[in-house]
Amino acid sequence: MSSSSTFIHSISDIKHCLYINLESRRDRKEHIEEQLTGIGISPIRFNAIKLKNGRIGCSMSHLKCLQIAKQNNWPNVMICEDDLKILNYQAFISHINKFFSIHGNSDNSIKNNWNVLLLAGNNVPPYQKIDDTCIQVSHCQTTTGYIVKQSYYDILISNIKMGVEHLMKTPDQHIVYAIDKFWIKLQKQHTWYMLAPVVAVQREDYSDIEERKTNYENIMKDLDKPHLMHQQHHIQQTQKNNASLLSAIPSLSTIPSMSMMLKK
Q1: Same domain, 77 and 134
Q2: Statement to judge: residues 163 and 38 lie in one domain
Q3: What is the torsion angle, in degrees rounded to the nearest 10, for the CA atoms of residue 216, residue 181, residue 235 and residue 239?
Q4: Taking residues 2-27, what's their average pLDDT?
Q5: What's the mean pLDDT in 229-254?
Q6: Does the pLDDT value for residue 152 go beyond 70?
């Protein structure tokens, strides 16, 4: 895409921002509007789709926001949940503007090859540091806030639709098919960046989806998750050792029967 309308030189070029908010959460409405206006964004409220299964409602809300962007032919869209927390307004503006100065010019296809920019996320290694404004992720969860290019709408829409279909058939498999789990496969295939160092998180609050108070701020600030990676390594090593032990045990067919042993 070479049209100047696709240039994003600064955050002021983000003209379309939808935030997802349940009718019952006026507290969150006030919070997110304050956060977004604080960074110079004029947001539009999207009335969240409320279903008995909150994860399906969440996925469908994000899906509808992307469909709105596509229908209106927006060159890009910022989609946020109402618990997005900007750590520092000026630092965020400075950081994202620096990102766009490097990665927002459509004339530079190498630096501007990203599909999605995550404003925040729960990142798990491996990831690649691109420069001092962002990393390229391969396993990043949470749909706290992100910017999608128009050229990627159809791909992300298709992914979310498929996840919703699976969720409706097997709702207990949300660990695989929830929106922020199922889109990980896209992160491994395409170019997803996240602002780094971390400039935004998910605020501590009661989650209508999880039906409990959640606090992921510290987890989201930690890009490397050393304790988690150590735990995963330990589990993998244990499984490997167990497999080695099992392979060393003779099969039942090679063990003499009791009667044969008594005859000797």
Answers
A1: yes
A2: yes
A3: 170
A4: 87
A5: 55
A6: yes
DSSP secondary structure string for all residues of the chain:
---GGG---SGGG---EEEEE-TT-HHHHHHHHHHHHHTT---EEEE----SSHHHHHHHHHHHHHHHHHHTT-SEEEEEETTEEES-HHHHHHHHHHHHHHH--TT-TTTT--SEEESS-EE-S--EE-SSSEEE-SSEE--SEEEEEGGGHHHHHHHHHHHHHHHHH-GGGHHHHSHHHHTHHHHHHS-EEEESS--EEEPSEEETTTTEEE--HHHHH-SS-HHHHHHHHHHHHHHHHHHHHHHHSPPGGGSPPHHHHHH-
Per-position b or e across 21-47, b if 16+ CB within 10 A of its CB: bbeebeebbebbbebbeebebebeebe
State pLDDT tens for residues 199-236. 999 998 766 666 677 778 999 999 999 876 555 544 55
Asked if pLDDT for residue 77 goes beyond 70, the answer is yes
Same domain, 133 and 65: yes
Domain match, 248 and 211 both: no
**Residue 199, token pair as written in the block:** 């400039």
Same domain, 248 and 203: no
Q: Over range 70-93, report the average pLDDT.
A: 98
Q: How many domains does the chain have?
A: 2
Q: What is the mean pLDDT of residues 132-137?
A: 98
Statement to judge: residues 24 and 155 lie in one domain: yes
- Residue 90 domain boundaries: 4-222
pTM for the full predicted model: 0.84
